[in-house]
Amino acid sequence: MPGLAGNFGCGNRITRVPRLLLLLVCLGVALNAFAQPPFQSLTIGYDQAVGLAAKWILDKQFGPARQMLAGLEKAYPNNPQVLFLEGQLAFAEGDYQTAIAIYRRMLSKDPSLTRVRLALARALFAAGDYSAARYHFEIALGQILDQQARRNIYAYLRAIQGRTSWLTFSASFGEDSNPNFATDARTVDILGTTFVLNPDARAKKSFGTVIDAQGRYAFGEDNRNFVSGALEHRNYAGSYADFDALELTLGRSWVVGQTMWTAEAGPVLADYQQKELDHGAMVRLTNARPFGERVLSTSYVSATRLQFPDYSYLTGEQYWAGTTMRYAVNPTSGAWMSVSWGRNLAHDATYSYRAVEGTLGYSKELAARLNVRLQLSANQYVYDEPSPLFGIERRDQLVQLDLVLTARDWNFHGFAPTASLSWGRNDSTIPLYSYTRQFAGLGLTRQF
Questions:
Q1: Handedness of CA 411, 77, 133, 293 (dihedral sign)
Q2: Which residues, 6+ apart, have CB-to-CB distance to 162 below 8 Å?
Q3: What distance in Å separates the CA atoms of residue 252 and residue 28, rounded to the nearest whole number?
């Protein structure tokens, strides 16, 4: 039975064709096939290359994405879109620190890049740097965003406040003109007699260190339970103005709609001049929620019972309530306002007082790669009864102005250098309690 030639033109049985000619034809076909290149070169445009890189990142094809981005980086050095995709690739691979470094470098050149800021906030959150993540999420609210994006930001902020473990730290080193808030008066009148104050009782400058740290450890069901702590440490030459304060609380958080609630309680204590000043316990209830598209509010009420072992006349209770409103002005700046009311009930009514405190603040990220933070604070303390030594009612009014510059481009392991200036003036109806205080120093912070 005769056979078929097949589709390739080379059969087993061909009539009237010499065997040698058949072999030559088959060899020519084979050589022609092997002469064809296995791959054809393909030229694509910039937009197509970027699109492919983005798709490969989403599809978790990290090898091809990395090769494509390497080629784009050579062809388009420091291109913002390419840099952003490199950050997205690092984030997708779990290399959060590299992603953070890329996004921060981009924001240093242009702080108005909202998409980059949101990516940075997300990377900081994934890396566990919740304080910095919160800063960038709040600033991002100053941009025009759709409702889903805002809901996502609020969800991140609620998680940071109520369900995460975090630690913040800042330190400053410099000269303080009046670290123990001593009077600048030279004389004082007591019961009609004028006394000259000893130099040790008056204001004097000193070089010192101020450290503030706050931390929180979340645990339990959905991380709703937490242990929280706050530490303030002030150390100056000679120890005459050294001060330490510690607060440690156990609490729980819960969510109602878009509102985050936290309740906590625990011990507090303070040392002054390396000796115990007071100890006691406090309870606090906090409420945090958004108002409108750009405003976030945090309100609290607290009650504290303090015992002063060496100053029994100061022993008593303190009650405070306050609220802070933060407004995202635009993609690079924010403002805030806070008001607090306080009531101190000391054992000796002479030291009991009513207090009102207020703060106005503004922060701005400059194109010069500096963050500027300006804050004006004022408070008034009115005491219940006239001082028996001075025979007049004591009323104190304090005004303080603080300026902090942060060099965000010089960060090292999440810390950036800061320069701070502070000026404060307290005026009292009793000159002994009037003073001026100035501070200038350098330090480190993670909140940027």
A1: positive
A2: 218, 223, 224, 226, 253, 254, 255, 260, 262
A3: 82
Scanning the structure block, which residue is given the tokens 């109602």? 256
Prediction pTM value: 0.77
E strand intervals along 257-369: 259-272, 275-291, 295-307, 316-330, 333-346, 353-365
- The domains of the chain are located at 46-162, 167-445
Domain spanning 46-162: CATH superfamily: Tetratricopeptide repeat domain (1.25.40.10)
CATH no., domain 167-445: 2.40.160.40
Helices (H), 110-166: 114-127, 130-140, 147-162
Helix, coil or strand: residue 15: coil
The 10 Å Cβ neighbour count of residue 143 is 19
Any idea what the Cα angle at residue 357 is, between residues 351 and 361, rounded to 5°? 150
Q: CA–CA separation, 249 vs 251, rounded Å?
A: 6
Q: Beta strand pairing status for 435-445 and 166-176?
A: antiparallel
- Helices (H), strands (E): how many in the chain? 8, 16
pLDDT tens sequence for the chain (448 residues):
333 233 333 333 333 334 443 333 334 433 444 444 444 444 677 888 888 889 999 998 999 999 999 888 888 888 999 999 999 999 999 999 999 999 998 988 888 898 999 999 999 999 988 888 988 998 888 888 888 888 899 889 888 888 788 888 889 999 999 998 888 888 877 777 777 777 777 888 899 999 999 999 999 888 889 999 999 999 998 778 899 999 999 999 998 888 999 999 999 999 998 899 999 999 999 999 998 889 999 999 999 999 999 999 999 999 999 999 999 998 899 999 999 999 999 999 999 999 999 999 999 998 778 899 999 999 999 999 998 888 889 999 999 999 999 998 787 777 889 999 999 999 999 988 999 999 999 998 877 7
Q: Which residues contact 340 (CB under 8 A, 6 or more apart)?
A: 320, 321, 322, 323, 355, 356, 357, 358
